[in-house]
Amino acid sequence: MAGSGVFGEIIDGDVFKYYADGEWKKSSSGKAVSIINPTTRKTQYKVQACTQEEVNKVMETAKAAQKSWAKTPLWKRAELLHKAAAILKEHKAPIAEALIKEIAKPAKDAVTEVVRSGDLVSYCAEEGVRILGQGTFLVSDSFPGNERTKYCLTSKIPLGVVLAIPPFNYPVNLAVSKIAPALIAGNSLVLKPPTQGAVACLHMVHCFHLAGFPKGLISCITGKGSEIGDFLTMHPGVNCISFTGGDTGIAISKKAGMIPLQMELGGKDACIVLEDADLDLVAANIIKGGFSYSGQRCTAVKVVLVMESVADTLVEKVKSKVAKLTVGPPEDDCDITPVVSESSANFIEGLVMDAKQKGATFCQEYKREGNLIWPLLLDHVRPDMRIAWEEPFGPVLPVIRIGSVEEGIHHCNASNFGLQGCVFTKDINKAMLISDAMESGTIQINSAPARGPDHFPFQGIKDSGIGSQGITNSINMMTKVKSTVINLPSPSYTMG
Ligand code: NAP
Fold this sequence. Notes:
The chain is an alpha/beta fold. The protein has helices at about 50-70, 75-90, 90-105, 105-130, 175-185, 200-210, 225-235, 250-255, 280-290, 310-320, 340-355, 405-415, 430-435, 470-475; strands at about 10, 15, 20, 25, 30-35, 45-50, 135-140, 150-160, 160-165, 190, 220, 240-245, 260-265, 270-275, 305, 360, 370, 370-375, 375-380, 395-400, 420-425, 440-445, 460, 465, 470, 480-485.
């Protein structure tokens, strides 16, 4: 059970503590933030509402701890990360339970998220040892006008304090995808978990605590992003922000100081289907890509752009698969579970009603009970409907019928987003040309968009993000190049 066994010390009464200076603490605010179970719509957990003074203290200790951590041998940093990964995997059950209760993640997916996170931490430790163990060596006479009188040695040094802010949908995985690269690179880390998902994150942080990381190196500040977020992101003690979420990221980018930013934001991932595509494969990928975790994935298929000539057949195939999706509580490992909050369900409903009013074809009846929305395929969607452009983050998928590939590419590129996209065709030449033409960070050929495997580069363009991640890119992003130049005497100098 969450907050029991080895996790007993992270809770006080019914309120989970925050983590600072190597200890679990109660906030002096005396206030708690409620985490609402999306299924029951009742308070499931409570976390501390941390104060600005507590943030200041955490930043001070993070700064101090980072100085000695940066001098800790790389192999030792890696050893601790491997230890944390093993502890995390060992305690997957209570963490998965928190994911089920806080964000209604289907039971099996909740366990998968924790195991995948442990694997990510281990991979990151190994990758860090390799790439941070290397530097470059340059000689001066390769640049015009220079003699060989300078040797330049470069290595990668940490940035300082990294602020990590993950979203609700993969709170553990998207927290460790920031924590592990930051730590292996010699940074300290302040985590602000999403409110829905905070308890899973606190358990994950305790696994790092149990692994024996130095005091103050990792901290976890809880509280509502709307209340504590600006203070954190504009804090002068922060040297880098790694954020994953929605439009909030755009606002943060405008307010943050002159520090490196890693922004992984929303998407409207398009699925372009050509006439020669294997429609069974497409239908299976639309189901997996559009409806896994009820569509609450940044890389979910969010609009299908299908050639008119094969649209009827494809829609029929998808419809028959939608009918087989199980709908219900996450504890029963249903395919479709309640969306994260009532406001999210209301937003999705708004998109559905707009499409209805403007004449979309409903392939299923629209049905909602509380936060639970039954999977819905909307056919004959047109560009004047909101769902053609907006990210529902729910189990509702629009189909736009296109008369040409160019029309599909045009729709994809007219979006403000540019995270991922996919194209289905048996013609690899066409697939490559379409991939080149789509303005998105990644194009999958003959498969639904996906973030993993976690070492692949992952990036969005336009409003979908800044920078690139994936384990190697994240480690590089959380470091800076440092040069040392050895100046030698002129070539006329003689040793004798
Ligand atoms: P969100 O509302 O933007 O929240 C993300 C995080 O920001 C949460 O931890 C939130 O804390 C925090 N936050 C809120 N206001 C803040 C502020 N003023 N300053 C600093 N932090 C603040 O996003 P979400 O609803 O959790 O996640 C869904 C979105 O994330 C979707 O748009 C999805 O596409 C995107 N996403 C993108 C990727 C990617 O890699 N590109 C991956 C996953 C999700 P609270 O929970 O306390 O408000």
